[in-house]
Design goal:
single chain, 129 residues, mainly beta, four-stranded antiparallel β-sheet, 5% helix
Length: 129
């Protein structure tokens, strides 16, 4: 059974960096598109960055371009999100999700998995001085 566990959230000052990890169990990263979704307080979750586990094709939303980097580690069955130059607007809960038979762009733009896949429970990021 597919399970996704996020880690790496915490408190960081504006301009700082964090690395989030999504560890996959019960399945192989290569069989899924893995995405990171951000839910700001009082808002719906939105796709931040998604990556194909099969070939590494990635997608970033505009606000993440040039600041965030998504990568997959096949050996560790993990997907990481390196976040740099963090802003107060980046604060919220970050969820990892997985879906089969989609593309990185489609999954991020849709806002999550709508087919075979699942969600993690999230990790909180606070950006404050």
């Amino acid at each position: 059974q597919l399970q996704l566990v996020e880690s790496g959230g915490g408190l960081v000052q504006p301009g700082g960096s964090l690395t989030l990890s999504c560890t996959v169990s019960g399945a192989t990263v290569e069989d899924y598109v893995i995405g990171w979704f951000h839910q700001a307080p009082g808002k719906e979750h939105e796709g931040v960055s998604c990556i194909s586990g099969r070939d590494g094709t990635s997608y970033y939303r505009d606000s993440a371009q040039d600041r965030f980097t998504v990568a997959r580690d096949i050996a560790k069955n993990t997907v990481i999100l390196q976040m740099n130059s963090l802003k107060p607007d980046d604060a919220g809960v970050y969820y990892c999700a997985a879906e089969k038979k989609t593309t990185a762009q489609d999954m991020c733009v849709k806002g999550g998995p709508y087919g075979v896949g699942g969600w993690g429970k999230g990790t909180r990021v606070t950006v404050s001085s």
